[in-house]
Amino acid sequence: MRNGNGVTAYIALGSNLGDRARAIYAAVQKLFAHPQITVTAMSELMETAPIGGPTWSPPYLNGAVAIETSLGAHALIKEFHVIEESLGRMRFGERWGPRTVDLDLLLFGDRILSSDDLIVPHPLMHERRFVLEPLNQIAPDAMHPALQMSVRGLLDNLK
After folding, report:
1. Catalytic residue among 104, 117, 128, 152
2. Into how many domains does the chain fold?
3. Would 58 be classed as within a structural domain?
4. Among the listed residues 93, 121, 94, the one whose alpha carbon sits nearest the alpha carbon of residue 106
5. Which of 6, 37, 95, 148 is deepest in the core (most CB within 10 A)?
6. What percent of the chain has pLDDT over 70?
7. Is 128 a residue of the active site?
8. Span 23-50, mean pLDDT?
9. Is 110 part of the annotated catalytic residue set?
């Protein structure tokens, strides 16, 4: 950590418009460049079918990163929005619709947070293979603080 103290957080990355890999790697580079974020691990990218969005949506590339940060969870989400918008993400239209890049906060240390604009752990992460498989590559022993299960255990439950 550049500033010596921080929280370990895990982020899901996704893209299904344009040059998907380039958008994801550009988002990770922007995380790297932030003075209060240190990227400590990144999963491989995997292609997945869209879930819950329009039937015409193109396939996604998904991945996950681990970070250390001194930012609070709400400040981190604001940084995600800045990164997404800088890479062409528009926040309107159909929920779970196509997007150039998407960053979702999955876990923020062992904290459980719930507000109008943020729920951590991510409320659907334990149901989504496209989240758990990349996360399992980098943090199989990370614990879901509400369910008291490891990422590996959550993934095993889906199988």
Report:
1. 104
2. 1
3. yes
4. 121
5. 37
6. 87
7. no
8. 96
9. no
Q: State the residue range of the domain holding 43.
A: 7-123
Active site residue 117: no
CA dihedral 154, 112, 68, 37 (to 10 degrees): 120
Of 89, 110, 111, 117, which one is the catalytic site residue?
A: 89
Please tell me the distance from the alpha carbon of residue 113 to that of residue 36, in angstroms, as a whole number: 21
Q: 118-148 pLDDT, tens per residue?
A: 999 999 999 999 999 999 999 999 999 999 9
Q: Is 102 a catalytic residue?
A: yes
Q: Which of 22, 102, 129, 141 is catalytic?
A: 102
**Is the pTM for the entire model greater than 0.85?**
yes
Catalytic residue among 95, 99, 116, 152: 99
Q: Is the dihedral of CA 105, 59, 55, 28 positive or negative?
A: positive
Per the structure block, which two tokens stand in for 133? 């498989």
> Is 130 a domain residue?
no
